[in-house]
Amino acid sequence: MKTFFIKIIKHLFIFLIILEIVSRVFIDPLFFFSLDTFRNKSCKTIKCILEEPNDKPDYIFMGSSRVAALVNLELLTDLTGNKNVLNSARGYMTPGIMIQALKSKLRETPDFLSDSKVFLEYYGQGSLTNLYIRDQLKVYETYTMKYSSQPQFILPYLNFSDLKDFWSVSSNSWKVKVNLTVLYFSASYRCALFMNEKFNYADKVLYKGQSNVSESGGIRSDDIENTIQFAAISAEKKKQRILSEPYLTQEILAESSLSELNNLVRENGGELVLFKTPLHSISKEIFNTQKSKLNNQVFIKWLNTQKINLIEPENFNYKDEDFLDILHINPDRKDEYTHSLYNQILVLENLLIKN
Amino acid sequence: MLFNSFDFAIFLPIVFIGYWFLFNKTLKIQNLFILVSSYFFYGCWDWRFLSLILFSTIVDYLIGIGLSRKENITKRKLLLWISILMNLGFLGFFKYYNFFLHNFITAFSFFGKEISANSLDIILPVGISFYTFQTLSYTIDVYKRKLEPIKDFIAFSAFVSFFPQLVAGPIERATNLLPQFQKNRIFKNDLAIDGVKQILWGLFKKVVIADNCAFFCNEIFNNSSSYNGSTLVLGAIFFSFQIYGDFSGYSDIAIGVAKLFGFKLMKNFLYPYFSRDIAEFWRRWHISLTTWFRDYLYIPLGGSRASKGVIVRNVLIVFLVSGFWHGANWTFLFWGGLNGLLFLPLIIQKKNRKYTNDISNSFYFLPSFKEFFSILSTFALVTLCWVFFRAESLTHAFQYLNGIFSDTLFEPPLITFKLGLLVLLIFYMITIEWFGRFSEHPLKNLVKNRNIMFKISFYSLILILTIWFSGKQQDFIYFQF
C-alpha cells in the first residue's frame, strides 16, 4: 500500500511540474494576451495599438459586452474621418477591472489618454455608482450555477500585494477569492481552463441559424434560453438590491468608481463621456421605482457638477423584440446605433467647440 | 454521480481509504462498507429506486436459498420462473411499458379500431438493465447447479450493487464476482497500479474522444438534412468513436476502480474496431452482454448444434433481443436485426470463428493489406449499423443514409479547426490501442520496458490531452439502457 501511494504521489508531482512548465512557456503568453482589455481579440482599432505601441486613441469605448456588440468600430472610424477609435469593451467587465486596466496602460504609455475621449456605457444606477473602495478589485460574480464567475480578467493587472488586498477589500465571495488565488499561482490551472475553453468554443460555425455576437465581443448566443432566464433573474435581483441600499447622495457619488474613473481620465488629459445603451423593458423595470427615480435626479445633478456629459443616441427606436437575449440588441442593428451615436458625438464636439 | 465528475473524485478516495484502512477488520464489515457506499453512489442519481434494487436483491437471495433446499424439479422451475418474471417484469414495466402501449394503439388504429389508453410518466431507473441481468445470472446458475447459493446476505447485496459496475456494467457473472466477495481481499500493488492506468485510459476515451465526438454527432445527426453526404459520413464515423469511447471508457474506469478494491471484473471490450469480420466484432464488443446472451439465451435455444433453420432463428432471436435490450425503440430492434443479418452468412458457412487469433501478428508493425482491408470493411459495416442506433427514428435513419448516398457524397465535408484536432486525437487513440492491443487494456504493458523519462512523458501527454481537450461533460450513453 505504501509503495502504491508513493508511486502515485511521485508521478502526480512530476506530472504537475511538467504541466506547469509547459503551461508557463507555451500557453501563458496566449492566456494573458487574451485577457488584457487593451490587447485581446475583441478589442479592435483600425490602427491597432498592438502594432503601434505608442499610438494613442482619439476615442476609447469602455463598458460591457453590450458596447462590444453595439459599436461598429470600422463604421465609426470612417464616419469620424479616420480618427483612431478603440473599442475595449468586453463581457464580464467590472469598474474595478476597467480602472486597473487603464492604470496599467497608463504606466506603460503615460500619454495614452491625453486629448482622448473615453466613452463609458451608462444604463442606470449600479456598479459604477458603488463605492470604489469596495469595488476597486472586484471581479464579475454570478450566483447561478449556469454561468460561472470570471475572476481571471483582473489577473494581468494584479501583483502579489494586490492579491492580498483582493482578499481584504473585495466584496467577492470566498469561492471567487480562492479561485483567483489558484489562478494567480498555478499556470497549470489557468491554462487548462483557457485551453479547454478555446477548444470547446472553437467551432461556433456549427451553430447555424443563430447569429453569434461573441465574435464582436458580445455574449454567446447559442444558449439563448438560459441567457434570457439568467438576465430576468439578474434584473430582479438588481432591483431588490437597489431598493435595499441607501439613497444615492453627492457624498456617495464622490467616492464612487465612476468618480475614480473620471479623476483618472482627467488627470491624464482625457475627457470622460457617458453614453446610454438601449434597454429591454425587463431591464428598464429595475429603474422604474420611486427610489431609482430620485437616485437618478441626484446622479444627474452630480454629473453636472463634475461636468461629465451624458449622451443618448437619438432616433434609435427599438422594441423588446430587437433584443437577442434581453441584454444584447441584435447585431443587425449595430450600424444603425453607431450612426445615431456618431450624430450625438458630433453634437457633443460642436458643443464643446462653441463653449 | 458520473465517473468523470468532481463528486466522484471526492467519493472514490474516501471509499478507498474507508475500505482499506477503517473498515478492513473483517470481511463482513468490508462488504457492508462496499454495500453502503454503493447504495450512496446509486442514491445520488435517484434514491427512490434503491428500494427496487433492495427488493430485487432480497427476492433473488431468497430464491437462491430456496433452490438449494428444493430437489423437486417442478418446484425448482417455479422458483426460477418467479425470479425471471419478477426481474424481467420490473425491466419490462419501467423500460418497455410505454413502447408496447404506444404500438398497440398504433396497431389497433391501423385496423380501424380506436382505443384510448394513457401512457405513464415512467422514469427509467439508471442501470436497471445491467443489474437485472446480473441477478438473473445468479438465479439461473444456482438453478443449473453451477453455483452454490450464497448464505451471506451482505455479500450478495454487495455483489448486486457493487458501485463500479452497477449502472453500466460490465454485467458480471455470479460465478466470477460472487466468490470474490466471499474471500479476504489483500491490497495488491501491481493490481492497483494497473487499475489507475486503466482509469486514466478510460477517462481519456470518455472525456476527450466521446464527449468531443458527441459535439459533432449531435450537430450532424440533429440537422442531417442540411449537411452534404460526406459530412454525414463523418457524422456516422464520429458516432462510432463516440459510442466506443463512451462505453469502453466507462468499462475501463469501472474495471480500474474495481482493481483498486482488489476485484477483477470481466473484460467488456477488446479493441473491437480492429475486428476483421462481424463475428469477431461481436466477440470483442460489449463482451459481458454478448456472452450473457450466448450462455442464457442462445445455447438454451439450441445454439449452433442444430439445423441451419434453427441456427438462423436462434441468431436472429439473440440479435433482436440484444437490440431491444438497448432500448424501447424500433431503431434498436432494427440495429439488432441488421447485425444479425450480417452475422448469419458467417455462421451458416461456419466462418464465424475464422478470426480467433490475435489481430495482426505481433512481429509486424502494421497489419497486412488484407487485414487492413478486412478491418476497414468491418468498421464500415458496423458504422452503417450505428446510424440506426443513433437515429431518432427509422425514418430519420433512412433519411440519413439517403443523404449519405446522394450526389453530395463526393463534395468536401465540413472541416473546422476543432474537427481537425479531434481527428488527430482519434488517430492518437487508435495508435495507442494498436500498439497495446495484446493486453487487456493498452496502457498495461505498452511502456513497461521503457526508461523512466519515456514513461513520464507518455503518461503526462495522456493527462495533458485529457485536461486540455476534454469536451463538454455528457452523460454516459449506456446509462439510458
UniProtKB/TrEMBL annotation, chain A:
Q: What are the entry keywords?
A: Membrane, Transmembrane, Transmembrane helix
Q: Does the keyword Transmembrane apply?
A: yes
- Give me the segments passing through the membrane: 12-35
Q: What is the protein's given name?
A: SGNH/GDSL hydrolase family protein
Protein's organism: Flavivirga aquimarina
**Lineage start:** Bacteria, Pseudomonadati, Bacteroidota, Flavobacteriia, Flavobacteriales
TrEMBL record, chain B:
Q: Molecular function terms in GO for this entry?
A: acyltransferase activity
Q: Where in the cell is it found?
A: Cell membrane
Q: What is its EC number?
A: 2.3.-.-
> Is-annotated flag, keyword Transferase?
yes
Main localization, broad class: membrane
Q: Does the keyword Electron transport apply?
A: no
The transmembrane residues are 6-22, 49-67, 79-102, 122-143, 310-326, 369-389, 409-431, 452-471
Q: Which UniProt keywords apply?
A: Acyltransferase, Cell membrane, Membrane, Transferase, Transmembrane, Transmembrane helix
The record's InterPro entries line, in alphabetical order, gives: Ac/AlaTfrase_AlgI/DltB, AlgI, MB_O-acyltransferase, MBOAT_fam
Task: Provide the membrane topology annotation.
Answer: Multi-pass membrane protein
The family this protein is said to belong to: Belongs to the membrane-bound acyltransferase family.
**Descriptive protein name:** MBOAT family O-acyltransferase
